Amino acid sequence: MLVFSWSLAALLLVSSSWAEEEVAAVEGDASKELTVSELLTRANRDLTPDFDEPRLVGGDIAVRSEADRNADPCTARGCLWQKYSDGKVYIPYFIANHYSSREKSIITRGLESFSQVSCIRFRPYGNGDHEWLSIESRSGCYSFVGRQGGGQTVSLSKQGCLYHGTVQHELLHALGFNHEQTRNDRDNHIRVHWNNIIEGMEYNFYKIDTLNQGTPYDYNSVMQYERYAFSKNNYPTMEPIPYSNVAFGQATQMSQNDITRLNRLYNC
User: Fold this and answer.
1) Cis (ω within 30 of 0) for the bond into 242?
2) How far out from the chain centre does Cα 79 lie?
3) Which is catalytic among the residues 27, 38, 170, 180?
4) Cβ–Cβ under 8 Å, residues 145 and 178
5) Which pLDDT score, from 0 to 100, does residue 4 have?
6) What three-state secondary structure class fits 136?
7) Burial class for 2, CB neighbours closer than 10 Å (0-12, 13-18, 19+)
8) pLDDT band for position 11 (50/70/90)?
């Protein structure tokens, strides 16, 4: 019986090790093959949302009404999460139980990555919490921008959204950030080719009165989409200026500028 117990324990340890290696392998392969922008585009392509899911703009930004379609909700009202007396911003979250342990570990790693570079602290939901992130596998990858009040969905579909950079991208939306290409100074850095955009999708490139926190436009931001986003003809919808061959939209995780503006927004 003792031998059996030791064998079972060893098997569990090996299985745990395999699971951790599988997570690393999945994320490693994705980071080499596909950027966050490409992962989001692939995961959200040709979706049929459930009746109770929000409308999406910008590919993965959830909005509650048509009135929010062309405006940043954060410019109309306060959308920052509360800072506590210890200088930390504690944000409750709940991870739906339909994820496997391996999938949960990818999500948890993304949540914990913010505590390593900022005053943001994601913590498990508890009784008495009135605002929280409900992380669920819905139709594709999406999040509302900023604090909405009550429970707000962050969708990380099991089909295509469970990668470290994708988790960071959606959490940055939840913290109040929009896509880089919608910055109010976008036209100084990106030329939009409107004639190459899918009809009806032009609003995804409308500029927003963003708070840029004194940081420069960042081609390497995890919030920057790639040059063929929403293309109807396989021609670029975006081109960097003045140097058109500059790479952009290639991020696989938060850039230093992403981290800097996060810390400035929340006065970390």
Assistant:
1) yes
2) 17
3) 170
4) yes
5) 37
6) strand
7) exposed
8) very low
